[in-house]
Amino acid sequence: MPIKILPARLLFVGLLTLLISCQKTPVAQVYQQQLFAFGTLIDISIVTKNSQQAQDAISEISSEFDRLHTQWHPWQGGELALVNQQLPALKAIAISNELAELIKQSQTLSQQSEGLFDPAIGKLIRLWQFDQLEKDNFQFHLPSPKAIQSIVDSKPEMANLKLFKNAANRSFLQSDNPSVILDFGAFAKGVAIEKMLTILKAHHIDNALINAGGDLKVTGSKNQHPWRIGIKNPQNAQDPSQPAILAAIQLNSGEALFTSGDYERFFIANGRHYHHIIDPRNGYPGQGVRAVTILDTDAGRADAAATAIFLAGPKKAMNIARKMGVTHLLLIDSDNHIYLSPAMAKRLELLTENSTSIFSTHD
Amino acid sequence: MKQLHFITTHEDHRVALLAALAITIHIIESAFPTPLPGIKPGLANVITLFCFIRYGWKTALQVSLLRVVISSLILGSFLSPTFLLSLSGALLSLLSLLLVQWPFRHHLKYQPSAIGYALIASISHISGQFLVAWYFFIPHPGLFKLLPIFITFAVLLGLVSGIITQFLVEPYKALPE
Amino acid sequence: MTNAPGNGTIHFKGTDIIILLLAVLLCVWLYFSLWFGQAIGKADTLIVQIDDQSPTEYSLKNDRLLKFNGRIGTSLIEIKQGKARFIHSSCRNQFCVFHGWLTTPGDTTACLPNRISITLKGYASEYDALAGER
């Protein structure tokens, strides 16, 4: 059978083109979705060739965020709310292993932070009403100094809690201070994000970014390039003429970036700002710092450390960071002076003209 | 069963010869260092242009696809980013040549000469590569700052390859295909 | 083609010259728009998401007021000179209104009680995400 070569060659070229277009292209789409969950706005970016895969993962993440939000809410409906009701009775309470794990981790971090991060101050948070921000009928009123002082004097802390297991491997919790109420507002988001990354892994998603209200963790990269993050400039919140972005940073796989700041969630009463980071030592919002951003591979630790170092202030920042095992920190004080740990200074690309100093390693 | 045998036409020989020439130039060119990544004299495109002007787009398409594929096989870059860049540039430049030729298909008098075609080919070649590079490999907006430089080089190198092509085409003008 | 090119001379046709002129113009335009212009990395679109509905996009080119109904009431969003903000929302805490103008791609704020979020998007944004309090 004679074959004329011209059509054969065109066929070859056609097949080749087809082969190339069917070939796994080096690029996958970035699939993005926004969720209202966990009392905040969550942006999920997933790099995948398969949007169904992304959708499945996101719907599982969404319901997991909802479940954790309910379970870990300090006084609304879930397990933690039940535990908080029973804690002041100082009897042993049966709790889930998941909650026991959360408490155990925060006990360690609380001790390392010298009590600056302490989820046992739920009573204070409740008094300041910062656990009620989502409620639509919410009205802020300044707590009385007496009420604050009486809680601070009763010294609620994580060390008041004892965790133990019975023979059947069931976890129990017991408090020896009636004033202890748990509120994981400064920790739960970090732990939750870690759980979400486990879900992504189970869905075979290797490249993703989860941004929960400005606190985020990445895995993998975006088309072979590290995820590039802009850190917001606190000054821009009051003065839009200031640059919107303070610094840029590229995150390696598995790195989290958590920020505690006074510039978005606050109330004004009698002409003063009252923000949501309460100092366990005196019961009032921490003073002297505008924002702390922590980079760490553990989102939970980053979350707790951001709060602790915000309250520690620039003088004690490096000391607390070292005790908590954190190396990368950025702190902006109320005069907008920037402090960086040496490790952070190497990673960060500062984009503003603020005066900057680098913590010495011997602080 | 009947015996399978190929009939090669005169045109096949021509494509083979021109492709071989283009591949040789492509490979020699790839051995030279470049001032900026992505900027090459693009002399292999002279052959594509020659094919396009003298024999039409079908010959040009075959020659340039053969060049891209075989050169990449020889250089070991088949299906790699370099290959994809090369392919996208080659395809977009041929497509642009066709688009420019289309309005003048019945007005030979107004058709651009080799120089005009070379400019079109070279600008679209680098634009195609650039877009693929930006979309697939370096999706950073900073890359766009380089685009004007790339296009400037494309215009200069397009002029050079156009002039070379013109010298190549002129002697054939009088000859039949 | 009145005068056929001789050997060794470079011959430009009228069409060639037009193409060359256009190419040079393209170069100049690219330098101006990409080196001196500000188009890249600037926000150009507002994305509004209400509850779990699919998001809607609005161009930032036209100044306008947008009114949406959420879970607890209405939210009023203003687009002005390439920026956007909440100017009113039915929530008590008013965090969305306090947030002020969104100016940078990736910038986002929400009225959580009303379940309405606004996010700026830009062509070829420099960042994959913005970190910091919102």
List keywords for this structure.
B: 177 residues, mainly alpha, globular, C: 134 residues, alpha+beta, mini-chromosome maintenance (MCM) complex, domain 2, 2 domains, 4-stranded antiparallel sheet, 8 strands, disordered N terminus
DSSP helical segment count of chain B = 6
Total beta-strand segments of chain A: 18
Indicate the CATH architecture of the largest domain in chain A: Roll
Provide the gyration radius of chain B in Å: 17 Å
Provide a brief overview of the structure.
Chain B has 177 residues and is mainly α.
If you had to describe this structure to a student in words, what would you say it looks like?
The complex is a heterotrimer of chains A (363), B (177) and C (134). Chain A is built from ten helices and 18 strands. Chain A has 363 residues and is of the alpha+beta class. Chain A has two domains: 29-70 and 188-358, T-fold, CATH 3.10.520; 76-175, T-fold (Orthogonal Bundle). In chain A, the strands form four sheets. Chain A has a nine-stranded mixed beta sheet. In chain A, a hairpin with a 5-residue loop joins strand 5 and strand 6 (171-175). In chain A, helix 7 crosses helix 9 (299-324). Chain A is globular and about 55 Å long. The longest helix of chain B has 24 residues, at 114-137. Chain B is globular. In chain B, helix 1 crosses helix 3 (57-75). Chain B has helices spanning 10-30, 44-55, 57-75, 81-101, 114-137, 147-169; one strand spanning 5-7. Chain C has 134 residues and is an alpha+beta fold. Chain C has two domains: 12-40; 43-122, N-utilization substance G protein NusG, insert domain (mini-chromosome maintenance (MCM) complex, domain 2, Sandwich), CATH 2.60.320. The radius of gyration of chain C is 24 Å and the shape is elongated. At the A-B interface, strand 1 and helix 1 of A face strand 1, helix 1, helix 3, helix 4 and helix 5 of B.
